[in-house]
Each structure stands twice: as C-alpha cells, then as structure tokens.
Structure to design on (252 residues):
C-alpha cells in the first residue's frame, strides 16, 4: 500500500534529518526524503534520497544559504536502515544545487578556519621561485555573470618581501564558456611583471582543471556556476561514499 510505503520512508527520512541536524552547527530548515519501502530496505536498496536545506552552518563560519540534492538509486546496509541510520554499501552519485550569498562567502573567507585551509604557493617564473602568501580577500557579486575580488598577498621574490593589493573582475567558468579575466589592477605594492602574471594565470588554469575535490567521504566537481546579484549558484556532481560522520573537518 502506498501509505504503508510512506510510513517507512517517513521514518527513515525523519531519522536522517535528525542525524544530519545534529552534525550541523546550525540549521534553519532541512528536509530529507528517503525514497524506498520495507521490501527494498530488507534487500538493501532505495530508489534515491533527496535533500533540501536552508541556512546550513557546516562550520562555525561556513554557511550555505540553500542546498538541493538528489541521489541516484542507492545500495544501503539493511540492518542499519531498519535502525534509522543510512549507510551506503556502494558509492552514491548525486547532483546538487548550492546557493552561497556574498555575505556568507566573505564571512567564511575572513574566518580562521578558511585561513588555515588556504595554502601558500610557489611559482616558477623564468627559473626563479616566487612565493605567494594570501593575506586577505573579499568577493563581490554584482551580477551579470561577474565576480569582483579584492585582496592582498605577501609576495616574496628576488630576496625581497612586499605586500601586493589588487582588484580583479572575472567571469567564472560555466558549462558553455571558459573562465574569463576582464581586468586586474594593482592598488598597492608597485605592480607585478608580465612574466609573473603569466605564471599566475597558468597556476589558476591548473587549479580550475582539477577534475574533482574531496571532502571527507565526498568527491565533488563543479559543473556550472551562475553569478547573480549578491549570490553564487553552483551545480555540483558528487560521489558520496558515506554520509560524513562529522561536518566540521575539511580535507584537501
């Protein structure tokens, strides 16, 4: 009976919502729908899981305005499922839409947590190693597909260290066009050489061509980016090995 099926789905969905909510620092709203029935649970199967959340704080300063996620069919541990816990027997593919606001992005960028994750990097500029140490960064989302970044880096080259401040306007890559840099201006620090700009652009290209990123048991790749006034919309494909046991640790 459909109503009986919904009882199993409702039970699993409510337990999943409870467990995920407990792992989040804050959550305004979260709805999880496990699409299955008792027979499929016993067989270790589910047609899929959908997640819709608003105002999710994963880390003290890491906030997601909105997320919508839908998985493919999944293979689950039947005993754990009957106890209200979803454990995957095989990796699960999912697609998600994530909305980040300008305010939340900048709050995260200014946090100690994100600062500890941002790594310095070295560039080979005509045989000389130049070191970049990010100091601060702000992102502005004026719409029309554009992002503006303002920041400072500590630049170490030729035995000298100086602070370089900059502003840049770029269009992030989408499914239909590559990333485009519209302007780059040095506002403090005396500017940089053409050779150094070329090396920076090459490094940026390498980073954008990374096939996927990994966070705990989740591998994900960004398939499309849409910039609206004050918000960034990401379409992300993921492969989830397990629902994270903790939502507060970020792994490279």
């Amino acid at each position: 009976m459909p109503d009986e099926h919904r009882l199993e789905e409702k039970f699993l969905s409510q337990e999943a919502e409870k467990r995920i909510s407990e792992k989040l620092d804050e959550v305004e709203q979260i709805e999880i729908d496990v699409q299955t029935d008792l027979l499929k649970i016993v067989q270790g199967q589910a047609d899929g899981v959908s997640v819709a959340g608003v105002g999710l704080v994963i880390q003290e300063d890491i906030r997601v305005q909105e997320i919508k996620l839908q998985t493919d069919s999944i293979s689950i541990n039947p005993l754990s499922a009957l106890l209200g816990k979803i454990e995957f027997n095989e990796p699960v593919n999912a697609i998600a839409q994530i909305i980040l606001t300008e305010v939340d992005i900048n709050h995260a960028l200014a946090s100690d947590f994100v600062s500890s994750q941002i790594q310095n990097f070295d560039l080979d500029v005509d045989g000389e190693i130049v070191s970049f140490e990010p100091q601060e960064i702000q992102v502005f989302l004026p719409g029309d597909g554009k992002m503006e970044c303002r920041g400072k880096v500590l630049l170490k080259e030729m035995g000298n260290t100086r602070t370089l401040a900059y502003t840049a306007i770029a269009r992030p890559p989408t499914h239909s066009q590559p990333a485009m840099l519209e302007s780059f201006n040095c506002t403090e620090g005396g500017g940089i050489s053409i050779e150094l700009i070329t090396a920076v652009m090459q490094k940026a290209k390498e980073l954008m061509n990374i096939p996927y990123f990994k966070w705990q048991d989740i591998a994900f790749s960004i398939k499309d980016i849409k910039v609206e006034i004050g918000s960034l919309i990401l379409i992300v494909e993921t492969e989830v090995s397990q629902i994270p046991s903790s939502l507060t640790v970020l792994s490279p």
In short: The two ends are 46 Å apart (CA to CA).
